[in-house]
Design brief:
Layout (H helix, E strand, L loop, with lengths): L9 H14 L2 H9 L5 E2 H8 L3 H13 L3 E6 L2 E6 L3 H37 L1
Antiparallel strand pairs: 1-3, 2-3
């Protein structure tokens, strides 16, 4: 199998950073998840995410510039959709990692509570 190593030039690193920057905002993540598997207008996104129209529009523009969403015009409406489904691989990977960390933290908490309970029982 061939070598699939990417040469991380400054230009490529800047593009990667732009994508991560666009995804680093909770509002933008909410918008991306609203668009998972469907197209929506700015108004529909604003309503579903409980945002002002201008806020939704500004965040959609940031996601569009980063290549994460695409749009098309239908009559007078502009419909947005996911432009790069790879975004969900990143999100799903982070969510899985957080879930594993949470399970481990919960296990530690329960062990500490058990130890504390035994200490109280010895007093």
């Amino acid at each position: 199998m061939g070598d699939k190593t990417i040469e991380f030039t400054d230009e490529i690193l800047n593009l990667i950073a732009q994508r991560f920057k666009a995804m680093s905002d909770p509002t933008r993540l909410r918008i991306l998840h609203l668009l998972r598997g469907q197209e929506m207008s700015v108004g529909e996104i604003a309503e579903a995410a409980r945002l002002k129209h201008g806020t939704a529009s500004a965040n959609l523009m940031a996601l569009y510039k980063a290549g994460l969403v695409a749009h098309r015009k239908e009559g007078t409406k502009v419909l947005y959709r996911i432009g790069n489904p790879m975004v969900f691989k990143v999100c799903d990977g982070v969510c899985e990692s957080l879930k594993e960390e949470f399970v481990e933290m919960e296990r530690i908490r329960m062990n500490l509570e058990a130890i504390e309970g035994r200490k109280e029982g010895q007093s």
